[in-house]
Amino acid sequence: MVNPFRKIRDWFAVLPDKKKYIEVITASLSIPVLLSVVLINYLNIQERRSNDKITSTITEAPKDQSPTIITIIKEPDQNATPTPTIITSPTQSVTKEECIKDIGPISIATPEENEAVTSNPLEINIQYDQGEYCSVVWSYRINNGNWSNFIDNDIFIYNMDSGQKTIELHVKSIVSNASKTIRRTFTYENAYMMSTPTITPTPPSRTE
Question: Would you identify the CATH topology of the domain 106-188?
Answer without folding.
Answer: Immunoglobulin-like (2.60.40)
